[in-house]
Design a protein that fits this description.
By secondary structure, the chain is α+β, with helices and mostly antiparallel strands. The chain has helices spanning 33-36, 49-60, 65-68, 83-88, 99-115, 124-138, 172-182, 312-320, 326-331, 338-355, 369-395, 419-440, 461-470, and strands at residues 7-9, 14-17, 20-25, 41-45, 72-75, 91-93, 143-144, 147-148, 156-157, 186-196, 205-210, 219-227, 232-235, 263-272, 278-279, 283-288, 294-296, 301-310, 360-366, 402-406, 409-414, 448-454. The strands form six sheets. Strands 1-2-3-4-5-6 form a six-stranded mixed β-sheet, covered by helices on one side. The protein has a four-stranded antiparallel β-sheet with strand order 13-12-14-15, with no helix packed on it. α6 (124-138) packs across α8 and α11 (369-395) crosses α12. It is elongated. The structure holds zinc ion (ZN) (3 copies).
Length: 473
């Protein structure tokens, strides 16, 4: 056994094994998120479920792949009894001496992670999809199943995704997964249905029967008795007395004998203690325990819950990242999808083969995009990209196309002009964009470069687009 190779540094909270270093975190130790990324794996003390939840949210919800893809093992305690935590740890340990047993898992996750390419996505949705695909890829997971979870605002929790959304926004995960399905990254299979509050989309609902006049739940219900011999019909309270538990008819005074023989209970009468209304049909209300709205049940938002399976395309996305959803691009008027752009460039090469013309593909690279987006947030990012596209649009011909390769790389076509002129236009565009940012965003300055690449007839459109993009690296 290789057990003697585990070297523990109690002071630093690190464990070394076979050239790899794990860090131990517990509620008694100061948690420095930034320093966690450099370790090969994390061992978390599982005694406090609250602490583990907090840390898992910080790690799996982080935007740094060195954190959100980190192998995590829980040790001691009961944290893995939490259904969501159980899904998001990579193994359980009962002592540091067991680290050799999870070593292969750590190695495999980190090796698969190195195959992934990380890009900046245009929107929050695209970014979370990209992260999810990467997480599933590194864990060799093909299925994403909804977990019944009392702590979830939607009652079903999707591992990994749940920690990328604030609790009150969890319902948005259904829409996010639908984007992934529409894009062919996953397939969906019906699982169950949930009902959500019309106001806050929580499913923490308390269903009650209430008065159909004043909505009060403070009601009494009585059986209605039909006495066959005299045909009297009235609530059971008309038949009871204070002395014994016998039932006597108030009309004919006879004692009631057997249900079904001399009397029947044809229905129930409800009496509201709030407004004294007497009625036969309740309304059913669903009180939201999150925002307190009392929803009539027929108005609740019904959502289908699916389980998901990763497709081949989804795995490819994991490897190269997911930059934008079709909606992101749609919302930025004047742009086309990257696939469309690629097709257009392919045909342009065929066209200039005939016409011997000169056409260009142009890339505009926002060097400090990550820093920029982190500051302006996801809404600001959309507004910013719209402004940039508007500015570029105004500088090129309407027949030319604009696309996003990633949120930091914009590609343009400039057909039928000499490369020299195209490059001059690029310089003008860059100056305009710098000015735009200076006037609109006070303490942010944009690092931006760009170049026009003349299309040739020798290599494929695919290779030429790649050459252009790679010229910025
Ligand atoms: Zn009432
Ligand atoms: Zn009677
Ligand atoms: Zn609500």
């Amino acid at each position: 056994m290789a057990l003697e190779n585990v070297k523990i540094n109690a002071l630093k909270g690190t464990i070394k094994y076979s050239g790899r270093t794990y860090v131990y975190i517990s509620s008694n130790r100061k948690l420095k998120m930034e320093s966690l990324s450099k370790f090969d794996g994390i061992v978390i003390d599982g005694k406090s479920i609250e602490f583990v939840r907090m840390v898992m949210r910080k790690i799996r919800g982080n935007n740094n792949p060195d954190l959100y893809l980190k192998p995590i093992f829980s040790m001691n305690g009961n944290a893995h009894a939490d259904p969501l935590i159980a899904q998001l740890i990579d193994g359980k340990l009962s002592s540091f001496d067991q680290i050799p047993l999870v070593h292969d898992t750590t190695e495999s996750i980190n090796k698969l992670k190195n195959e992934l390419k990380f890009i900046n996505s245009i929107s929050f949705e695209a970014q979370v999809i990209s992260k999810l695909m990467g997480y599933m890829y590194t864990r060799s997971l093909k299925e994403l199943e909804p977990i019944p979870y009392a702590n979830s605002n939607t009652h079903y929790s999707f591992p990994f995704l749940a920690y990328n959304y604030e609790e009150q926004d969890e319902y948005q995960i259904f829409d996010l997964l639908q984007i992934a399905v529409d894009e062919g990254l996953m397939t969906a299979k019906y699982f169950d249905r949930v009902y959500l509050c019309t106001s806050c989309k929580s499913s923490h609902l308390s269903y009650r029967e209430a008065c159909n006049k004043c909505n009060s739940t403070n009601t009494n219900s009585f059986d209605i008795i039909h006495h066959f011999p005299c045909a009297y019909v009235g609530p059971i309270t008309d038949f009871t007395n204070d002395l014994d538990d016998k039932l006597n008819c108030p009309k004919c005074s006879k004692a009631l004998k057997h249900i079904g023989i001399d009397y029947d209970k044809p229905s129930v009468l409800h009496v509201c203690k709030n407004c004294n209304h007497r009625f036969q049909d309740f309304v059913v209300l669903a009180k939201c325990m999150s925002c307190r709205l009392d929803n009539p049940v027929e108005q609740l938002v019904s959502r289908e819950v699916y389980s998901y399976t990763l497709t081949k395309k989804g795995e490819d996305i994991a490897l190269r990242g997911y930059s934008s959803t079709p909606k992101d691009i749609e919302e930025i008027i004047g742009t086309v999808k990257f696939d469309t752009y690629r097709t257009v460039v392919k045909y342009e090469i065929e066209r200039i083969r005939q016409t011997e013309g000169s056409s260009n593909i142009v890339a505009i690279h926002i060097v400090n995009a990550g820093q920029f987006y982190a500051k302006v947030g996801s809404n600001g990012q959309q507004a910013f990209l719209r402004d940039i596209v508007g500015e570029i649009r105004a500088s090129i011909r309407s027949s030319d196309m604009i696309t996003f390769h990633s949120s930091e790389m914009i590609l343009i076509t400039m057909n039928d002009i000499p490369n020299k002129i195209a490059n001059r236009i690029v310089i003008d565009i860059l100056n305009l964009l710098r000015k735009l940012i200076d006037t609109n965003f006070k303490d942010l300055s944009l690092e931006i470069t760009g170049t026009a690449y003349q299309l040739n007839l020798e290599s494929s459109s695919e290779l030429q687009i790649n050459d252009l993009i790679n010229s910025f690296k």
